[in-house]
């Protein structure tokens, strides 16, 4: 579920998943935080111009990403607990849209 990112939105608490976007004009700013509950789950969304996904400290997640390379591709990125996974321009590729977050990885 969507959650507040805390006092420092660039470095939220370790129990939150963080998606960073290059779009500073979103109502809540460029950082999106999510709280995972239960043993498995998924959330579909569209967060354009994403460049990083940080995993929360307790689980490996899958981030489904549409990257606008030539041609546009949809891939699943593995995000380890507490790790920062670059996507799109963070990987020196085209712009990326986060389409889904899912856990556990591989479900």
Descriptive report:
The structure is a single chain. The chain starts with a strand and ends with a strand. The protein has strands at residues 2-3, 17-21, 31-34, 41-54, 61-67, 73-79, 84-86, 96-103. The model has no long low-confidence stretch (mean pLDDT 92). Strands 1, 2, 3, 4, 5, 6, 7 and 8 form an eight-stranded antiparallel β-sheet that branches. The chain is an all-beta fold. The radius of gyration is 13 Å and the shape is globular. Helix content is 0%, strand content 47%. It has one domain: Gamma-B Crystallin, domain 1. It contains no helices and eight strands. Strand 5 and strand 6 form a beta hairpin.
Q: Give me the CATH architecture, please.
A: Sandwich
Tally of helical segments: 0
Helix content: under 10%
CA distance, first residue to last residue: 18 Å
Q: What's the rounded overall pLDDT mean?
A: 92
> Which structural class do the helices and strands define?
mainly beta
CATH class: Mainly Beta
> What fraction of the residues are assigned to beta strands by DSSP?
over 45%
Remind me, CATH topology? Gamma-B Crystallin, domain 1
What characterizes the major β-sheet? 8 strands, antiparallel
Form type: globular
Radius of gyration using CA atoms only: 13 Å
From N to C, what is the helix and strand string? EEEEEEEE
- Low-pLDDT stretches are none
Number of strands: 8
- Domain count: the total is 1
């Amino acid at each position: 579920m969507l959650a507040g990112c805390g006092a420092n939105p660039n470095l939220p608490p370790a129990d939150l998943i963080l998606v960073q976007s290059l779009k500073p004009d979103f109502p809540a700013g460029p950082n999106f935080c999510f709280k995972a509950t239960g043993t498995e789950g998924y959330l579909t969304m569209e967060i354009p111009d994403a460049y990083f996904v940080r995993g929360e400290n307790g689980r490996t997640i899958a981030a489904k990403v549409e990257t606008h390379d030539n041609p546009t591709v949809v891939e699943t990125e593995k995000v380890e607990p507490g790790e920062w996974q670059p996507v799109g321009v963070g990987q020196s590729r085209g712009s990326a849209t986060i389409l889904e977050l899912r856990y556990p990885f591989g479900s």
